[in-house]
From TrEMBL:
Gene3D superfamilies, sorted: Alpha carbonic anhydrase (3.10.200.10)
Native source species: Vanilla planifolia
Highest taxon listed in the record's lineage: Eukaryota
The protein, known as: Alpha-carbonic anhydrase domain-containing protein
GO BP terms in the entry: one-carbon metabolic process
Length: 266
């Protein structure tokens, strides 16, 4: 029997898909001369893919809550290894309030050197993850290198700015040789699909259709993540899913991304 949460997630995703179709029809009606049938089909495909990604995340969340009988607030009860989720004192995510942020001129720009690498898309029970099976590059902090090991999505965003939540958040998880963790978070506004996400379309569809735990995607291009970054927010927190490990360094980019012009976080 399907859980109420799962049925709600499926209903919500169906509504989103309907909105995607309506949105494409609206664009075609508004721009009859400048919006070709091919562009219309392309826009619809992009929108439907975004809704599919959101559906996967919603179903994962709904099934976790139903099967385990626990919401994230009770993760610490699922296993002794997850106790930090309940008793931790520096847990993520957080709300970033403009009045609480201080400017630190001594912080260096984020130095990231990513390369294309083979990867698999994984359903780990908490989110959809891209796990790199080859060297995907690194970021550096204070002379130490942190390998890019995996990235995953949350929809809607986990972090908020002045209580504003964004449609999508991507976490790039890095780890050093002594197991220290840095996460770079990127928030997304609605717009054209991001090229990084779109290259994974077929693998995510297969993951959803076949109920697989992992799907190979071959070579994953990381070019879109190599942008120079000067504006960001830094704090010390935790992983946002079990085991909720603390002493994680977070960098949240200070601009929301989309495939068109970036939108400042105001």
């Amino acid at each position: 029997m399907a859980s109420p949460e799962l049925l709600l997630a499926l209903g919500f995703a169906t509504l989103l898909a309907s909105n995607a179709i309506a949105h494409t029809a609206f664009l075609h009606a508004m721009f009859p001369l400048g919006f070709s049938n091919q562009q219309s089909r392309g826009a619809l495909e992009v929108l439907l893919f975004l809704w599919l990604l959101m559906l996967c995340c919603l179903v994962l969340w709904a099934n976790l809550v139903w099967i385990q009988g626990n919401a994230p607030a009770n993760w610490g009860k699922l296993s002794p290894d997850y106790k930090t989720c309940s008793i931790g004192t520096h847990q993520s995510p957080i709300n970033i309030a403009k009045d609480d942020v201080s400017l630190q001129n001594k912080l260096h720009d984020l130095h990231r050197q990513y390369v294309d690498a083979n990867a698999t898309v994984v359903n780990n029970g908490f989110n959809i993850m891209v796990r790199f099976i080859q060297n995907a590059g690194y970021m550096s902090q204070d002379g130490k290198h942190y390998r890019l090991e995996q990235l995953h999505w949350h929809t809607p965003s986990e972090h908020t700015f002045n209580m504003k939540r964004f449609p999508l958040e991507i976490h790039l998880v890095h780890k050093s040789d002594d197991d220290k963790i840095i996460v770079v978070a990127i928030l997304y506004e609605y717009g054209n699909i991001d090229p990084f996400i779109y290259q994974l379309k077929d693998a995510i569809i297969e993951l959803a259709e076949k109920n697989n735990s992992n799907v190979s995607v071959g070579l994953v291009k990381t070019k879109s993540f190599r942008r120079h970054t000067r504006k960001f927010f830094k704090y010390i927190g935790s992983l946002t899913t079990p085991p909720c490990t603390e002493n994680v360094t977070w960098y949240i980019l200070g601009k929301a991304w989309c495939d068109g012009p970036m939108v400042r976080l105001n």
